[in-house]
Automatic annotation (TrEMBL):
Species whose genome carries this gene: Adineta ricciae (Rotifer)
GO BP, sorted A to Z: xylan catabolic process
SUPFAM superfamilies: alpha/beta-Hydrolases
UniProt GO cellular component terms: extracellular region
Keywords for the protein's UniProt record, in alphabetical order: Carbohydrate metabolism, Hydrolase, Polysaccharide degradation, Secreted, Signal, Xylan degradation
Signal sequence, renumbered to the chain: 1-22
Keyword Protein transport assigned: no
PANTHER family hit by this protein: FERULOYL ESTERASE C-RELATED, PTHR38050
InterPro entries: AB_hydrolase_fold, FaeB/C/D
GO MF terms, alphabetically ordered: feruloyl esterase activity
Protein name, entry field: Feruloyl esterase
Localization: Secreted
Superkingdom: Eukaryota
């Protein structure tokens, strides 16, 4: 009796020590499905079930992917009227060389369903289709990917733009899914007050990285009316997370180097003092920044022509230089 008790606790301890490194999923060691290969993007489908419609998403495996070692998953959610293909082009999580936990990543681009205005959208916006359960969709993608690939279940992350950023915040505010995601990034995000009836019933400290331009005319920095709803002001959103995470005091202010940002357009606000569980809240306030995803080059679909919003250039790369290193710092 005593001996088996001791054995039991020894094995629990061994498992706990192993899981500090990573949490390998059931897909580890399986052969890659035929239609997947390294450095490629493959379309996936979840059949309609339980009153939920068919769902689609794209999955990109890093160039150095090995299905016998655990890899992080990074979700990238498109904005209102966006598509999974455009989001891959815009957010660049399929770029070569991105490392989390010293391994290449599995980049996932989910497709939103058509909302009340006939344009793709995510749960929580005034124009999203209330019958669609996008949180269930994310849970199903995670369990599907964990079964097919060698996933490090302690390193799953979510990023999104505009309505997709608002949805990332909904994930962070929903304990049943937030408990599976290590850190969150929101870009030019639309945070509707109606998403949570004003509440964010989080039960853990959550690392949040947020980017927003002061010249964003779609999701204004100061918040206010939009699409029949109300957007939370960007600084209110950030302060809300800093408070929920127990961070104290005002954010520390820093800038990019003058070599990269001669006009010092980017102000970085970091809340890290006494935040619970080593969490931080970091906000990038980008002067002249429009409703885009900060990057140095234009997305391919802009055909080299600078226009507005997604077809604008920034002085920094939000994905490779900021979001990936931020995610890398956190695991569950
Ligand atoms: C690729 O393979 C997976 C797993 O077998 C399957 O679910 C998916 O539908 C396939 N995608 C395409 C485009 O054939
Ligand atoms: C939505 O996207 C489609 C396809 O890219 C485009 O033709 C349409 O103009 C967009 N709608 C709005 C309101 O921007
Ligand atoms: C991006 O990161 C690299 C490597 O850390 C650094 O050398 C470079 O200056 C950064 N670029 C920008 C624009 O921040």
């Amino acid at each position: 009796m005593k001996r088996s008790f001791l054995l039991y606790w020894t094995s629990v301890l061994v498992l706990a020590v192993l899981s500090i490194e990573s949490a390998p999923s059931s897909g580890c060691g399986k052969a890659l499905p035929r239609n997947f290969s390294n450095g490629q993007t493959t379309s996936m489908e979840i059949p309609a079930t339980n009153g939920q419609p068919v769902r689609h998403y794209k999955v990109h495996l890093s160039a150095n992917f090995q299905n016998d070692r655990p890899h992080a998953i990074v979700f990238s959610f498109h904005g209102h009227n966006g598509t999974m293909a455009k989001q891959e082009d815009l957010s660049q999580f399929s770029e070569k060389g991105l490392l989390i936990g010293n391994a290449g990543i599995i980049a996932v681009y989910p497709q939103g369903k058509l909302g009340t205005d006939g344009e793709p959208a995510w749960q929580g916006a005034p124009y999203s289709d209330r019958r669609v359960d996008d949180i269930l969709f994310v849970k199903t993608m995670i369990s599907t990917l964990e079964g097919m690939f060698c996933v490090d279940s302690s390193r799953i992350y979510a990023a999104g733009k505009s309505n997709g950023g608002g949805f990332v915040n909904l994930l962070a505010c929903t304990p049943s899914i937030a408990s599976k995601i290590a850190a969150f990034a929101t870009v030019s995000a639309a945070f509707y007050t109606t998403t949570f009836n004003g509440n964010c019933p989080t039960n853990r400290a959550i690392p949040i990285l947020d980017f927003h331009g002061t010249a964003d005319k779609v999701a204004r920095y100061s918040g206010g009316p939009s699409h029949g709803g109300t957007l939370v002001a960007v600084e209110t959103f950030r302060q809300g997370w800093a408070s929920r995470n127990g961070c104290q005091g005002k954010p520390a202010i820093s800038h990019l180097s003058r070599a990269n940002d001669p006009q010092q357009l980017v102000e970085i606000r970091t809340w890290s003092k006494n935040c619970r569980a080593g969490s931080t809240v970091i906000g990038y306030k980008i002067k002249k920044g429009q409703h885009g995803w900060p990057r140095i080059t234009l997305p391919a679909r802009c055909n080299g022509i600078t226009r507005k919003n997604d077809c604008t250039r920034s002085v920094f790369d939000a994905t490779a230089n900021v979001t990936i290193p931020f995610f890398n710092k956190y695991s569950l």
